[in-house]
Amino acid sequence: MLPDQKLSEHFSLYELTATSNAALQAANRDLTPEQLGKLCALAALCEELRAICGNTPMRVHSGYRSPALNGNTAGSSSTSQHPRCEAVDFDIPGQTLQESFDLIRAAARAGKIKFGQLIIERAERSYGIAEWVHCSVIGTLDPLKVGMVMEMQMVDGKPHYILVEKFNFATPQKGENE
Ligand SMILES: [Zn+2]
User: Fold this and answer.
1) CA–CA separation, 150 vs 164, rounded Å?
2) What angle do CA 43, 140, 103 make, to 5 degrees?
């Protein structure tokens, strides 16, 4: 298990590897240098999101999830970007999810941020419905999925994703637009 360390100005390794699953917590902080590097890139995205959402503290629900932890997380898919150190689930205390979601979309329209996917997600927990914003780096995401903005709705206990907007974040190929 790695010692805690700063990954960026406002985000630490332990924040982006925290889990409520006590049995898997230590193993979730056992990272390779490559994974640590990818988490630094995720922390950089978190800094951009934090700034866009008003420079107020962000509450991280989940960042990196080891494959074992991801498999134990209800509603999480095996193709999730969390096990690849590429996604963060969060909310901003004092702000509704919709407000954070809209601020990030407006920033993307203004060319101020690029992301892999931006999703409002919901899950049924023992205490009720939990909600958060999921945002990922482009990373290893399927290029066809890059720039998708979606809302998850629970229908009969199953997650359904509705595409609400799609950004074209593709960088121009050499020779194009020159
Ligand atoms: Zn997520």
Assistant:
1) 5
2) 50
Neighbours of ion ligand 1 (CB under 5 A): 87, 89, 134
Q: CB under 8 Å to 135, separation ≥6 — which residues?
A: 45, 49, 87, 88, 90, 104, 115, 116, 117, 118, 119
Query: In the chain, what are the domains?
Result: 13-166 (3.30.1380.10)
Contact residues for 172 (Cβ-Cβ < 8 A; gap 6+): 178
DSSP helix/strand/coil, 101: helix
pLDDT at 150: 97
CA of 155 to the centre of ligand 1 (A): 18
- Show the tokens assigned to 170: 């593709």
pLDDT at 107: 98
pLDDT (tens digit per residue) in 147-166: 999 999 878 878 889 999 99
The answer to whether the predicted template modeling score (pTM) of the entire model surpasses 0.85 is yes
